[in-house]
Amino acid sequence: MKEAAVKRIAAHVADKSMIAPGIYSMVLSCEIGSRALPGQFVLVYPRDGSHLLGRPICIADADDDSIRIVFRAAGSGTKDIAETGIGDRLFVEGPLGRGYPVSDEITGGRSIVLLGGGIGAPSLLFLAKSLRRQDPGADILAVLGYRDSSMKHFLYEDIKDTGADALIATDDGSEGIGGNVIDALKTTDRRADVIYACGPMPMLSAVKKYAKETGAKAYISLEEHMACGVGVCLGCVVKTLKKDGHSMVNNARICTEGPVFDAEDVDI
Known about the structure:
Layout: E1 8-20, E2 23-29, E3 41-45, E4 55-63, E5 66-72, H1 76-82, E6 89-96, H2 104-107, E7 111-117, H3 121-134, E8 139-146, H4 156-160, E9 165-170, E10 177-178, H5 181-186, E11 194-199, H6 201-214, E12 217-222, E13 237-239, E14 251-253, E15 260-262
Parallel strand pairs: 7-8, 7-11, 8-9, 9-10, 11-12
Antiparallel strand pairs: 1-2, 1-6, 2-5, 3-4, 3-6, 4-5, 12-15, 13-14
């Protein structure tokens, strides 16, 4: 795995749009993209100097000279970032964290299912592109879950454009299949050999249970509030089933040992 370079650099906003209510897509011109892996994130620093900490935002896509981020403008920090205009400068740090394991040994010849709940969908776009580059004939199904049709099934078309099959699930049934992503998956005849998932903790707990019941291998990206984002503050930990070799406790830092974990290794 590539080593994360923890270095704050300047990036310029090359493109920006609001793709659903409160959900923004930005393309940032910077060299981080050349080192990014699917599932990793960056710290984006608000322009308002009163915000000392960067906001962790997953990398939705990357190439040699840019990254794409998709995020919800929820608090004052992310709202400040969302107000940045095309051509403006932001400071970013990354790529950070452990991403999704992607290798022919894991996915070769197997049925792959991507499960994204809400703002968990962005990291799956980068993953779908990476899987497709690795194996142009890969069998990939993406199931994206949204609160309702007002969320405009953001990133659904982008993921379909990778060549993956895709389904929409909505909590209220106003679009696609009514229910959660596992409910939608169960309406198909697709066997899931390998599952990659990102979303709220209750969804990931259900994914872990489903994988155990069906014999699938599952890798889950945990959404968690972070402070430093580089493993110093211990503000984002998850209980693990194995003791950490350094601290000798059953905890792991989501920002460094994660955000992606083997579902079998975490107690959620």
